[in-house]
Amino acid sequence: MLTKTQWQVCLQTFEEMFPDAHCELVHKNPFELLIATLLSAQCTDVLVNRVTADLFQKYTVPEDYVEVSIEELQQDIRSIGLYRNKSKNIKALSEQLIEEYNGEVPPNRDVMMTLPGVGRKTANVVVSNAFGIPALAVDTHVERVAKRLGMNRWKDRPIDVEEKIMRWTPREQWTQTHHQMIFFGRYHCKAQNPNCPECPLLHLCREGQKRMKAK
Ligand code: SF4
Predict the structure, then answer these.
(1) Final residue of a domain: which of 79, 103, 131?
(2) Are residues 34 and 123 in the same domain?
(3) Are 8 and 41 within one domain?
(4) Which residues are catalytic?
(5) Is residue 130 a contact partner of residue 29, using CB atoms and an 8 Å limit?
(6) Same domain for 118 and 148?
(7) Ligand 1: nearest atom to the Cα of 206
(8) How far apart are CA 123 and CA 180, in angstroms?
(9) What residues make up the domain containing 39?
(10) Angle of CA points 68, 70, 74, to nearest 5°
C-alpha cells in the first residue's frame, strides 16, 4: 500500500501536472450545478454541457421544472443516459426545494442528500464547488486513480476512498485534490490505456509497474 509520504508525492505531482484543474460542468449558480451534476451520472461532462446549454436557457428556477410536464422534460434531456429517472428526480427535487428551502439549494451536504436523486458524490460536488465548503467527491476517476496508486484496496467502497484521502490530505486541499485527481484520471491515468511509460508516479505505482512488466 502507498505510504503517507508517498501520498504527499502524489499530491505534489497532481499539482504540477494539473494546477488549473476545475469543475468542467458549466453552471452559473448552485441550482444549475446541482442539476448538471445529477445529469452527469454515468454520462460525460461534455454531453451534459451540450444539453444544459439549452436546458438552462429554458429553465432557470425550480418552479420551471415543476411546471413543465414530465414528457417535455424527458424530451429535453433524452440524449442523456437514464433520462427518464433523472427527469423524475429533477421534478421531485425542485418541488422539495420550493416547499422546504424557499427554492434555494441548502448549503449543507447532509441536508442536500435528502433531495431525490442526490447521493453523497453529487452533494460533495455541489457543496465544494458552489459553496466553497471543502469536500472530496469520489467519482469513477478518483476511485480508479486511488486504487491503482495503492492508496486504497480494490475492494474498498467509494466512502473508504473518500475517508482515506481526506485523512491524508490537508482539509483546504480536498476540493482541489478532487479536481486534480479527476483530470489525472481523465487525461493521463485513463481507464483504458493509462500512460504508465510517461507517468511521474510510476516509481511508486504498483499497478503501473505491473502493466509495464506485462508489455
Ligand atoms: Fe496510472 Fe500508470 Fe501512472 Fe500508475 S503508473 S498512476 S497506473 S498512469
Answers:
(1) 131
(2) yes
(3) no
(4) 121, 139
(5) yes
(6) no
(7) 4
(8) 18
(9) 30-131
(10) 105
So what's the pLDDT on residue 174?
98
Say yes or no: 69 and 126 in one domain: yes
What rounded mean pLDDT belongs to the chain? 97
pLDDT band with cut points at 50, 70 and 90 for residue 142: very high
Q: Does residue 148 line the site of ligand 1, with CB under 6 A?
A: yes
Check if the beta carbon of residue 90 is closer than 8 Å to that of residue 65: yes
For the record, the C-alpha cell of 33 comes out as 450545478
**Ligand 1 centroid – CA 153 distance (Å):** 15
Helices and strands, number each (H, E), in the chain: 12, 0
Give the pLDDT band (50/70/90) at residue 215.
Answer: confident
Which of 199, 204, 215 to mutate to test ligand 1, by most ligand atoms within 8 A of the CB atom? Answer: 199
CATH of the domain at 148: 1.10.1670.10
192 and 152 within one domain: yes
pLDDT at 8 over 90: yes
- Interior CA angle at 47 toward 136 and 44, to 5°? 40
Residue nearest to atom 1 of ligand 1 (CA): 189
pTM for this entry: 0.95
Is 90 exceeded by the pLDDT of residue 157? yes
- Tell the residue number behind the cell numbers 413543465, with chain if given: 68
Number of domains comprising the chain: 2
Average pLDDT of the segment spanning 68-88: 98
